[in-house]
From TrEMBL:
GO terms for biological process: DNA-templated transcription initiation. It comes from the Bacteria. It comes from Jeotgalibaca porci. Residues 29-96 form the RNA polymerase sigma-70 region domain. Sigma factors are initiation factors that promote the attachment of RNA polymerase to specific initiation sites and are then released. Sigma-S contributes to the protection against external stress, thus playing a role in cellular fitness and survival. InterPro entries: RNA_pol_sigma-70-like, RNA_pol_sigma-70_dom, RNA_pol_sigma70_r2, RNA_pol_sigma_r2, Sig_transdc_resp-reg_C-effctor, WH-like_DNA-bd_sf. This is RNA polymerase sigma factor SigS. It holds the Pfam family Sigma70_r2. Belongs to the sigma-70 factor family. Keywords: DNA-binding, Sigma factor, Transcription, Transcription regulation. PANTHER family: RNA POLYMERASE ECF-TYPE SIGMA FACTO, RNA POLYMERASE SIGMA FACTOR HI_1459-RELATED. GO terms for molecular function: DNA binding; sigma factor activity.
Length: 192
């Protein structure tokens, strides 16, 4: 059994949590934070920020505590490491599927204009006062849905800045800006 400064092993903490003593969750999770940080460095997760991965790791730990069986001869540290690693593999598979899906759906804007009369008609509709009023109201509704960080990112993006430039201007990581733009897109799609 693995003991730390408090003298309580991982397995003892898991057993206590299974009995409803959830105050052991944070200390147990803290013991595994170096492992989570290591996995974040070892595996390139393009669409997952560190805070998101920490939340995922917490959920995985809750599940691991619930499913852990000490009778099977494996220590909890090895079991959690294995379950977390499999979860990260699942995230990587989803990211790869998302990329493949995006590539299959890609169509050039010029091709779309040439082949679709409805797109051409919609551009003509942009010029009517009614449409412009509706567009303005929709825009105000959309901006109201954005967090303050998403608004900052969105405003810089529509001014023509690249994701890399936005990250540099806001002094944040590239992936954080990319995730914010993805949330902006999702919120836009939700109201349109």
């Amino acid at each position: 059994m693995t003991h730390n400064e408090s003298g309580i092993s991982n397995e003892e903490m898991v057993a206590a949590m299974k009995e409803g003593q959830m105050e052991y969750f944070e200390p147990l999770f803290y013991r595994f934070s170096p492992l989570i940080k290591k996995y974040m460095k070892d595996y390139f997760l393009e669409y997952v920020e560190f805070e998101d991965l920490m939340q995922e790791a917490r959920l995985v730990m809750l599940d691991a505590v619930e499913r852990y069986d000490s009778e099977k001869g494996m220590r909890f540290s090895g079991y959690y490491r294995l379950v977390l690693q499999h979860h990260i593999y699942g995230i990587i598979r989803k990211e790869n599927a998302y990329r493949r899906k995006s590539d299959r759906r890609a169509v050039s804007f010029d091709q779309l204009l040439e082949t679709s009369h409805s797109v051409q008609m919609k551009f003509v509709d942009f010029q009517t006062p009614e449409y412009l009023l509706t567009l303005r109201e929709s825009y105000e509704d959309y901006v109201a849905l954005l967090s303050s960080f998403e608004k900052e990112v969105y405003l810089l993006f529509i001014r023509g800045l690249s994701i890399k430039s936005i990250a540099s201007n806001l002094n944040v990581e590239y992936v954080r800006v990319k995730n914010a733009l993805e949330r902006c897109r999702q919120k836009f799609n939700a109201i349109s």
